[in-house]
Specification:
The chain is about 0% helix and about 35% strand. It is mainly beta. It has one domain. The strands form four sheets. A five-stranded parallel beta sheet has the order 1-4-7-12-15, with no helix packed on it. Strands 2-5-8-13-16 form a five-stranded parallel beta sheet, with no helix packed on it. The protein has a four-stranded parallel beta sheet with strand order 3-6-11-14, with no helix packed on it.
């Protein structure tokens, strides 16, 4: 997979996108032949987990290896409430106004915009909107993978991030 630009992930049951198994942003070399990857200008909305970046544990063997997401938008719960259907078992209160809506995985699933797993991960110039916690359901713009028995990389970093509650449709 090469450069990933101007894409959207909306209303997914669990994850908008998961990148795993050692995707990296440095050029291939004799020691590590994996290709270049970066995410620029992506949008994630109404997902259980918007984006997970994970690596194959290359740090510290490949000091230049990392994954990055830049100039992207993450929306916890937009104005798109979904439709109540007779067989819809994931309908319940959500958003900052507690209105009824389709939920990504159920009423108690902890919504996360960006999930960090392994690393190194670089997140910069991104906006996070409408992440509202409810009683009984944790919600966060950033989070780490739950039940992770692996260590997180000490080189993860986040810069120039905006958090707001601007209405999104």
């Amino acid at each position: 997979m090469g450069q990933f630009t101007n894409n959207r992930a909306h209303s997914n049951y669990r994850a908008g996108m998961i990148l795993d198994n050692g995707v990296k942003t440095t050029e291939a070399n004799d020691k590590d032949k994996r290709p270049f990857l970066s995410l620029i200008g992506a949008r994630f909305a109404d997902n259980g987990i918007g984006l997970t970046l994970a690596s194959g544990g290359t740090f510290p063997d490949d000091d230049g290896s990392h994954q990055q997401v830049k100039n992207s938008l993450f929306v916890g719960e937009s104005g798109n409430r979904g439709t109540l259907l007779p067989d819809n078992n994931i309908w319940g209160p959500g958003g900052s106004d507690f209105s009824s809506r389709t939920l990504p995985r159920g009423i108690d699933f902890p919504i996360r915009g960006m999930q960090i797993y392994d690393g190194p991960v670089n997140v910069q110039n991104c906006t996070f909107r409408k992440f509202a916690a409810l009683h009984g359901r944790h919600t966060s713009a950033f989070g780490f993978r739950l039940n992770n028995s692996w260590q997180s990389c000490p080189k993860n970093y986040v810069t120039n991030i905006t958090f707001d509650q601007v209405p999104v449709s």
